[in-house]
Amino acid sequence: MFDKSKVDYSLYLVTDSTMLPPGTTLVSQVHAALQNGVTLVQLREKETDTKVFVQQALQVQKLCREFNVPLIINDRVDVALAIEADGVHVGQGDMPIPMVRQLLGPDKIIGWSVGYEHEVQQLADMGPQAVDYVGLGMVFPTNTKKNPKKTPMGPRGVSKLLDALQNTKATWCRTVAIGGLHPNNIPRVLYQMCSEDGKRSVDGISVVSDIMASPQAGEATRRLRNLIDAECYSFVDGVGTNVEACTSTVDEACIESTKLNSPLIHHITNKVHQNFGANVALALGSSPIMSEVEPEFVELSQVPHATLLLNTGSVAPLETLSSAVRAYNTAQRPIVLDPVGFSATSTRLELNSYLLAQGQFACIKGNAGEILSLADMNLGKMRGVDSGDAGSDISIIVAATRLVAFRYRCVAVCTGKIDVVANGLNLGKFKLSNGCAMVPSQLPAYKVECGDIAVMEKITASGCSLGTTIACLVGGITDQQNVFSAVLTAVRLYKSAGYAAASACEGSGSFQVKLIDALDSLLTKNQPSLWKATVSSI
Ligand SMILES: Cc1nc(C(=O)O)sc1CCOP(=O)(O)O
Ligand SMILES: C=C1C=NC(C(F)(F)F)=NC1=N
Ligand SMILES: [Mg+2]
């Protein structure tokens, strides 16, 4: 009998004989997986008669014993008892947990499929003798599970369930993520899934098709093993880490890089913003391109210093936006997201939530309404925060901006009379099980202010073009420079230019022209010490 508190959930294979490639068998696939680092096996054969199922179970059990890996039986508690398996996994519609525990006794492993917070509450109510681990899913769409009743929850959905486990004190319960997990998304989801108290991330990753449908199951397993043991998501590793370097000298270096490298700024944005955004990018020594032509996204993302500015005010279809995110993540080039009108309508909320699950963003920039919504601090409770005297509500804005930075592991910017910038990039390495050892309130955050520029709200696309400015600076820097510093410099630059334009214009029409003039001249002169907007840490 093994000690169930010692089970390693890190790479959990769930079988499925319906997808075996030619020339492979259930046993050969499981064997290859066991040889290459799978740490737990579940026999899940939905379409097999009991007699065959029992034979398969005995064969797989023999193999697992050779590798000292526990064997879990899916659904079939009777078979698990008959062959003395190490445990069972049951779904919400299967035999109730207390009954399973009563049949199996205290030493066997019981796993439960969980997709909603109320199911976590039920688990906590049953206490530590009931469920030993949960499968949290499905994270992404998958063809493996027939007629799935659940919709993909994304990394954010898993984090919410980790929060629920923490909040209900179900700390004994182990967790694995499952559903559509493959090498192209596993580093990111491991990096993004963490409870808000920073204490808990998933204990493992569970896959079916990535191994079972692979003609080279051993290699597929080895790839997964290496990704899980790698401990950092390469896209953000090394950028945005030296936060303390945010001094004016850094601003000059960022500006210099943009002038030198003239980054390609790929805009996917709303019609109103396109023209003004292009002019802002040109004024900032960068080369704008507005393209929603999906076939060219990969090519664009591979242009040196290419950067994507995604403004969800764009009417492009969701799949177009998603393929742009995938292209730039694959090219490991930064994406700036402007979740326009984030929760103004349910369609916008759904679109933005879906997009946020598709990839890793370097920076999310929004107004108070959008940032508060992303932080689930909906405006209803916050009387007039988005327009009122930001001074009194700045602490709410700061908390929300830090929360967005933490949840999406990015630099978060909340625009307003005072802009707030929080750095969620330097959480660096993820760890299985033990979270990221940071909490939102500890994230570095800065205010950028320079008096009141009322006219800023009047011109079209003023907020959107801050997105362009951020993309120009983030796109221009070299690998040795710091994404967070680039964003902070962009916010300072834009606010200073806005101030200069407001002082020189006769109204909102000339304001736009003056703004572009100011951006151009501030960039050209590159003297941040003279800029009007000041940065102060919070
Ligand atoms: C068995 C299972 N359970 C899920 C859940 O959401 O509870 S998703 C799933 C299938 C996962 O297969 P693949 O790794 O091939 O996407
Ligand atoms: C439906 C399922 C959900 N999760 C899991 C596991 F990942 F193993 F926890 N197994 C299943 N069969
Ligand atoms: Mg906006």
TrEMBL record:
InterPro entries associated with the record: Aldolase_TIM (IPR013785), Hyethyz_kinase (IPR000417), Ribokinase-like (IPR029056), ThiamineP_synth_sf (IPR036206), ThiamineP_synth_TenI (IPR022998), TMP_synthase (IPR034291)
Domain of life: Eukaryota
GO molecular function: ATP binding; hydroxyethylthiazole kinase activity; magnesium ion binding; thiamine-phosphate diphosphorylase activity
One GO CC term on file: cytoplasm
Keyword ATP-binding: yes
CDD domains, per database record: THZ_kinase, TMP_TenI
Catalytic activity: 2-[(2R,5Z)-2-carboxy-4-methylthiazol-5(2H)-ylidene]ethyl phosphate + 4-amino-2-methyl-5-(diphosphooxymethyl)pyrimidine + 2 H(+) = thiamine phosphate + CO2 + diphosphate; 2-(2-carboxy-4-methylthiazol-5-yl)ethyl phosphate + 4-amino-2-methyl-5-(diphosphooxymethyl)pyrimidine + 2 H(+) = thiamine phosphate + CO2 + diphosphate; 4-methyl-5-(2-phosphooxyethyl)-thiazole + 4-amino-2-methyl-5-(diphosphooxymethyl)pyrimidine + H(+) = thiamine phosphate + diphosphate; 5-(2-hydroxyethyl)-4-methylthiazole + ATP = 4-methyl-5-(2-phosphooxyethyl)-thiazole + ADP + H(+)
Keyword annotations of the record: ATP-binding, Kinase, Magnesium, Metal-binding, Nucleotide-binding, Thiamine biosynthesis, Transferase
Cofactor: Mg(2+)
Keyword Transmembrane among record annotations: no
Pathway(s) per entry: Cofactor biosynthesis; thiamine diphosphate biosynthesis; thiamine phosphate from 4-amino-2-methyl-5-diphosphomethylpyrimidine and 4-methyl-5-(2-phosphoethyl)-thiazole: step 1/1; Cofactor biosynthesis; thiamine diphosphate biosynthesis; 4-methyl-5-(2-phosphoethyl)-thiazole from 5-(2-hydroxyethyl)-4-methylthiazole: step 1/1
Coiled-coil boundaries: none
Family recorded in the similarity comment: In the C-terminal section; belongs to the Thz kinase family. In the N-terminal section; belongs to the thiamine-phosphate synthase family.
Annotated function: Condenses 4-methyl-5-(beta-hydroxyethyl)thiazole monophosphate (THZ-P) and 2-methyl-4-amino-5-hydroxymethyl pyrimidine pyrophosphate (HMP-PP) to form thiamine monophosphate (TMP).
Annotated protein name in UniProt: LAME_0B04588g1_1
Species whose genome carries this gene: Lachancea meyersii CBS 8951
